[in-house]
C-alpha cells in the first residue's frame, strides 16, 4: 500500500458547521467552517483550490466543479477532476503553485494538511475554508456549504436533499436490525482498523453493525491478530487500495475460531466508496448494509 493511501485512509475528525449565505450571486458570502472560523468572500468564489481529493468530489456534487483551478494528487473523481492542475500532495503541496493559480478561495483539510502551510496561505491574504467531517450524515451539510461558497446553492441544496433522503431510507431499513459485530480492516501490515470516531464507524452503525473496536479513540489504530480473535467479529470487511479484493482478506481463514471465518463473512468494498468523505459514501454504505444483511442470513436457525 502506498504511503499516500495509508495516510489518507487514517485521516478524519469531528465537524460541526453553520451556513449563512446572504443575497444574490454577487452578494457577500459568509460561511462558518468546521473549525468554527468564519470565512467571508465579497462574492461567490470563481477560482477554487482544494487540498485533498475528497474535497474535489464534494465540490463537483455541489455544482462547483467548473470553478476548480487547482487540486492535489489522487483527485480522480469524477472524470473531469483528472484534468485539473496539480499543486502537489495533500500533505506536501507547493505553496508557489497555489499562489500562481490566483485562487479566491482555498478549501483545506483539517487532519490532512500541514497547519503551518495553511497559515502561510492566510498570511498571503487567501481565504481558507477548513473542512473536516466525521459522520456520514455530515456530508449533505458540507455539500450545502460548498455550494454557498461557490454560488451554486440551487444545485448543492438539491444534491444535499437527495443525499438525506437516500440516507434516511438506509437508516430506516437497516439501523434497527439485529446488530452484526464487524471488524473493518484497512490494511494488513501493520494490521489497522478504524476507531469509533472514524467516519467508517458511522457507516457501520447506519447498517446496524457494531465496530468491534468502537471503543478506541484513535482514528486508524493498529491492532493485533490476537485482539481480533478475542473480539470474534461476525463479519470482516476489508478495503485495500484498489478495485481488486485484497488477497490478505483470505488470510483470516487460518483462524477457524472466528465467527466471520466459520460463516464465510469475509467482505470487500472498494476504498474510494467508503474511505473518502464524499457523497459516494452512500454507495459504500449500501454495499456494507447488504453485506451485513448477508451475515444475518447466515446465522444458524433454531
What does this 3D model show about the protein?
- The relative contact order is 0.13.
- The protein has 302 residues and is α/β, with parallel strands linked by helices.
- The chain is elongated.
- Helices cover 35% and strands 16% of the residues.
- The chain folds into two domains: 3-166, Rossmann fold, CATH 3.40.50.1980; 175-297, Nitrogenase molybdenum iron protein domain (Rossmann fold).
Number of domains: 2
Write down the CATH topology of the largest domain.
Answer: Rossmann fold
Largest sheet: 4 strands, parallel
Q: Indicate the CATH architecture of the largest domain.
A: 3-Layer(aba) Sandwich
Helicity level: 25-40%
Q: Which runs of at least 5 residues are low in confidence (pLDDT < 50)?
A: 8-25
CATH superfamily of the largest domain: Nitrogenase molybdenum iron protein domain
- End-to-end separation: 43 Å
Structural class: alpha/beta
Radius of gyration: 20 Å
Assign the CATH class of the largest domain.
Answer: Alpha Beta
Average pLDDT score: 90
Order of helices and strands: HEEEEHEEEHEHEHHEHEHEHEHH
Number of helices: 11
Binned strand content: 15-25%
Sheet with most strands: strand arrangement = 5-4-8-9
Shape: elongated
- The beta-strand count equals 13
How do the strands and helices of this protein lay out in sequence?
Blueprint: H1 3-9, E1 18-21, E2 29-32, E3 38-41, E4 48-50, H2 53-61, E5 68-70, E6 88-89, E7 92-93, H3 95-100, E8 105-109, H4 115-123, E9 128-131, H5 139-150, H6 153-174, E10 180-185, H7 199-206, E11 209-211, H8 225-231, E12 235-238, H9 259-262, E13 266-268, H10 271-274, H11 281-297
Amino acid at each position: 500500500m502506498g504511503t499516500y493511501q495509508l495516510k489518507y485512509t487514517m485521516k478524519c475528525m469531528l465537524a460541526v458547521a453553520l451556513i449563512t449565505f446572504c443575497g444574490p450571486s454577487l452578494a457577500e458570502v459568509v460561511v462558518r467552517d468546521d473549525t468554527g472560523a468564519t470565512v467571508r468572500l465579497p462574492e461567490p468564489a470563481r477560482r477554487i483550490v482544494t487540498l485533498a481529493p475528497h474535497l474535489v468530489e464534494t465540490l463537483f456534487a455541489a455544482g462547483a466543479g467548473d470553478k476548480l483551478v487547482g487540486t492535489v494528487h489522487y483527485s480522480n473523481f469524477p472524470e473531469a477532476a483528472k484534468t485539473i492542475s496539480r499543486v502537489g500532495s495533500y500533505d506536501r503541496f507547493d505553496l508557489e503553485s497555489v499562489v500562481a493559480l490566483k485562487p479566491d478561495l482555498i478549501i483545506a483539510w483539517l487532519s490532512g494538511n500541514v497547519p503551518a502551510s495553511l497559515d502561510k496561505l492566510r498570511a498571503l491574504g487567501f481565504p481558507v475554508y477548513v473542512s473536516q467531517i466525521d459522520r456520514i450524515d455530515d456530508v449533505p451539510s458540507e455539500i450545502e456549504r460548498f455550494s454557498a461558497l461557490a454560488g451554486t446553492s440551487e444545485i448543492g441544496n438539491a444534491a444535499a436533499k437527495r443525499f438525506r433522503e437516500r440516507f434516511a431510507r438506509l437508516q430506516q431499513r437497516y439501523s434497527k436490525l439485529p446488530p452484526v459485530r464487524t471488524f473493518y480492516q484497512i490494511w494488513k501490515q501493520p494490521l489497522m482498523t478504524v476507531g469509533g470516531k472514524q467516519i467508517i464507524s458511522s457507516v457501520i452503525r447506519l447498517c446496524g453493525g457494531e465496530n468491534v473496536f468502537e471503543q478506541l479513540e484513535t482514528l486508524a489504530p493498529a491492532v493485533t491478530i490476537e485482539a481480533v480473535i478475542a473480539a470474534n467479529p461476525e463479519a470482516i470487511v476489508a478495503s485495500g487500495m484498489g478495485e481488486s479484493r485484497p488477497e490478505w482478506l483470505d488470510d483470516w481463514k487460518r483462524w477457524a475460531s472466528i465467527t466471520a471465518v466459520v460463516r464465510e463473512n469475509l467482505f470487500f468494498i472498494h476504498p474510494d466508496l467508503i474511505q473518502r468523505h464524499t457523497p459516494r459514501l452512500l454507495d459504500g454504505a449500501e454495499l456494507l448494509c447488504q453485506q451485513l444483511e448477508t451475515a444475518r442470513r447466515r446465522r444458524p436457525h433454531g
